[in-house]
Amino acid sequence: MTTYSVAVIPGDGIGNEVVPEAQRVLEAVARSGGFSFDWTHYDWSCERFARTGAMMPADGLAQIRDKDAIFLGAVGFPGVPDHVSLWGLLIPIRRGFHQYVNLRPVKLLAGVESPLKGREPGSIDFYVVRENNEGEYSSIGGRLYDGLDDELVMQQSIFTRRGCDRVMRYAFELAKGRKKHVTSATKSNGISHTMPYWDERFAAISREYPGFTTDQFHIDILTAHFVRNPDWFDVIVASNLFGDILSDLGPAVVGSIGIAPGGNINPEKEYPSMFEPVHGSAPDIAGKGVANPIGQIWSGAMMLRHLGEEAAAAAIEGAIEKVLARRDSLTRDLGGKAGTRELADAIIGALPF
Amino acid sequence: MTTYSVAVIPGDGIGNEVVPEAQRVLEAVARSGGFSFDWTHYDWSCERFARTGAMMPADGLAQIRDKDAIFLGAVGFPGVPDHVSLWGLLIPIRRGFHQYVNLRPVKLLAGVESPLKGREPGSIDFYVVRENNEGEYSSIGGRLYDGLDDELVMQQSIFTRRGCDRVMRYAFELAKGRKKHVTSATKSNGISHTMPYWDERFAAISREYPGFTTDQFHIDILTAHFVRNPDWFDVIVASNLFGDILSDLGPAVVGSIGIAPGGNINPEKEYPSMFEPVHGSAPDIAGKGVANPIGQIWSGAMMLRHLGEEAAAAAIEGAIEKVLARRDSLTRDLGGKAGTRELADAIIGALPF
Ligand SMILES: CC(C)[C@H](C(=O)O)[C@@H](O)C(=O)O
Ligand SMILES: CC(C)[C@H](C(=O)O)[C@@H](O)C(=O)O
Predict the structure, then answer these.
(1) What is the CATH number of the domain that holds B202?
(2) Is residue B111 part of a domain?
(3) Residue B82's pLDDT band (boundaries 50, 70, 90)?
(4) CA dist., res. A199 & res. A168, Å (int)
(5) Residue A184 domain-assigned (yes or no)
(6) What CA–CA distance (Å, rounded) separates B25 from B31?
(7) Nearest to B140 by CA among B160, B159, B158, B155
(8) What are the residue boundaries of the Isopropylmalate dehydrogenase-like domain, all occurrences included (chains A, B) (predicted)?
């Protein structure tokens, strides 16, 4: 029997409530799927930062280096600045483990209310493939004339050929099993060095995939198309910043921002990949047992798919869709009355075995 | 009688059809408003580029330097690359004349179909104030290891204190006559130099405006709020790139992307400001007399407001709203059968005098 060794980092706030529920669901599919989990728990969080002065130990990455995957809840707590909570945990893991793909599905599901008029379940169904390691998130930059009227601040964006090509190839490979349509997010009409380069690499990689259709839109009009024509898309590939924007806007458009999953993926599996929901630690509702666990459970399904357990992944996704469509057992954010645990129980109950 | 001397640059495609119609509307309000226009026509365009090798003459800026305003249609033609059409005309004018504010209204109007469910006319009504001169659109950058596997491209974003402060003050001044609520678009959790600086300046400028409410959102979740909670906003201030995105997404959300106006403003009036619709040159429908002139006419109203002709500006805006609500005389894009000229005539007919 295959055993997957997984680092579990619930993090802060509702992360501590939704992660254990998602683990129960994963255990349930493992039993019938003939595999098992070896979970190792890490308390890396803002709470740990408050106690010890660091989000994770200095050798944190080495401790989880050999895991098959990382299952993350959410990090962030009011009063802890972002450069601590994010640059002290989330971003070092993404970069340190070459998780150069951030993958988020955008799917209009029955039972989930979209803010858009007249869209049928299934009519919106695409993936945002975001470059997750470089680009606009480079930390290179600085300040001149501190405190004076002439003060200015610079920041470098850095796009490498390797960085562009590998995430674009990932997008094409993903589209291979779908509609073979890849859309590139650009802004080469305004951002005059990096974005024309992005277009150049997109053209080059497109030539490696004959039989695929491709298009590209500037990010400004692309966000407009998310609202006007969300049915146009199959797989969208975007830089770190543009992908960040599109992978929040996409879930918002289908009404799933509270339940959307995400993966930070090292496709070569040389390093562990990390799976986390799109939502944050939601300190306002933490500790009440009312948080919606679907984003975490769905992220667990993405983890299983990455580990090669496609049937188990599909079983969980099917159960989520069934429970959403039935509209009983839902949490408050979805207009129901159930608690975190009840909703997880309903999903376990809806598994096909 | 005051005479405004205006540089008219119809540009390409439908620019040549909608600009003359907007001029007719402006002439109509001028007659009863007791002012007049002295129009000077410039053929600066991709068509001129094809003929002469330049979008505008070398001394173009000097030629229009002393005008009271610039009235632009649209530039762009298939086959002419952006670095020619935009960096050869639009961007040099924005920068050369210190048009450091790009202003775009976002308003849900009766008779205009929004893609969002359940929103009433008037319930969405805000401005996007975009920094229009610096930030992510700096042209500083370059390439290393050309053509090799190690190839990389860099681009600097540059935020100056002067550049941030002046556009933020403009946003607060605009909010003064409205709900006194200013929202800042940021991404300081991911972009670690320029965006924290933007937040720092926003905090500093906010302190100059006691009695105002302020908030800030990271650009990813802010785009989500445009879809989920567009009624939250009054005035939004954003960097060049983020403002570019929000001022396309905003009009898309209220269904007005084909009719939205825009201003590139030098608030001190040391240089002429430029007014242009959000839509482009639409080569696919050019020459057919079917283009919707409302974006151009509405941009004319913004020009009048900038020139101090508030009553005339409001008269045009009122006439646009009336014609939209009546839903006769509309162009095809709005579900009607009228041509460009008929719709302009309807707006002239709906003027309050
Ligand atoms: C054409 C392009 C360079 C321009 C911009 O990004 O500024 C346009 O999108 C706009 O918003 O006016
Ligand atoms: C928290 C923040 C740094 C992060 C990002 O921008 O990458 C988040 O928005 C995400 O999308 O995972």
Answers:
(1) 3.40.718.10
(2) no
(3) confident
(4) 11
(5) yes
(6) 10
(7) B155
(8) 5-347
Specify the 3-state DSSP secondary structure of A11.
strand
Using an 8 Å Cβ cutoff, are A128 and A103 in contact? yes
Ligand nearest to the CA of A280: 2
Confidence category of residue B88, pLDDT binned at 50, 70, 90 = very high
Check if the beta carbon of residue B161 is closer than 8 Å to that of residue B217.
no
Q: Which helix (H) or strand (E) holds B309?
A: none
Task: Return d(Cα B206, Cα B287) in angstroms, integer.
Answer: 48
Clarify whether residues A246 and A263 are in a common domain.
no
- A162 touching chain B per CB within 8 A: yes
The predicted-structure confidence for B95-140, as pLDDT tens digits, reads as follows 999 999 999 999 999 999 999 999 999 999 999 999 999 999 988 9
Tens digit of each residue's pLDDT (9 = 90 or more) over B305-347:
999 999 999 999 999 999 999 999 999 999 999 999 999 999 9
Q: Do B21 and B78 share a domain, yes or no? A: yes
Determine which residue's CA is closest to atom 4 belonging to ligand 2. B190
Cβ-based neighbours of B310, under 8 Å, separated by 6 or more: B304
- What does the alpha-carbon distance between residue B321 and residue B305 come to, in Å, rounded to a whole number? 17
> From start to end of chain B, where are the E strands?
2-11, 35-41, 69-74, 101-107, 125-131, 141-144, 152-160, 181-186, 213-218, 235-238, 261-265, 273-277
Compute the C-alpha angle B296/B297/B299, nearest 5°: 65
Backbone angles phi, psi at B247, to 5 degrees: -85, 0
Separation of B323 CA from ligand 2 center, angstroms? 44
User: Per the structure block, which two tokens stand in for A4?
Assistant: 């997957």
A248 and A142 part of one domain: yes
- The b/e string for B77-90 (b: 16+ C-beta within 10 A; e otherwise) is beebebebbbbbbb
CA distance A161 to A166: 8
Can you read off the two tokens belonging to residue B92? Answer: 């040099």
CA atoms within 13 A on the CB side of A122: 2
Q: Which residues of A touch B192 (CB under 8 A)?
A: 83, 87, 137, 139, 141, 155
CA distance A70 to A293: 17
Note down the domain range covering A194.
125-253
What's chain B's average pLDDT? 96
Identify whether residues A205 and A278 lie together within a single domain: no
Residue A242 counted as domain residue: yes
B148 within some domain: yes
Q: Which atom of ligand 1 is nearest to the CA of B241?
A: 6
Indicate the number of domains in chain A: 2
Question: Does residue A243 sit in the same domain as residue A263?
Answer: no
The reply to whether A256 touches chain B by the CB within 8 Å rule is no
Q: Which of A229, A253, A277 is the last residue of a domain?
A: A253
Q: What share of chain A is helix, strand, coil (3-state, %, to 5)?
A: 40, 25, 35
SS3 A163: helix
Residues B192 and B147 in one domain: yes
Residues in chain B: 353
A142 alpha carbon, distance to own chain's centre: 29
Question: Does B349 lie in the same domain as B268?
Answer: yes
Q: Residue A154 is nearest to which of B157, B161, B240, comparing CB atoms?
A: B157
Task: Report the DSSP pairing between strands A125-131 and A235-238.
Answer: parallel
Q: Using CA atoms, how far apart are residues B10 and B7, in angstroms rounded to an integer?
A: 10
B242 and B176 within one domain = yes
Residue ending a domain, choose from A232, A253, A274: A253
Given CB atoms, is B247 within the 8 Å cutoff of chain A?
yes
| Cα torsion through A248, A253, A257, A262, rounded to 10 | -50
Q: In this structure, are residues B273 and B264 in contact, taking their beta carbons and an 8 Å threshold?
A: yes
Nearest atom within ligand 1 for CA of residue B76: 1
| String of DSSP letters for B71-121 | EEEE---TTS-HHHHIIIIIHHHHHHTT--EEEEEEE--TT---SBTT--T
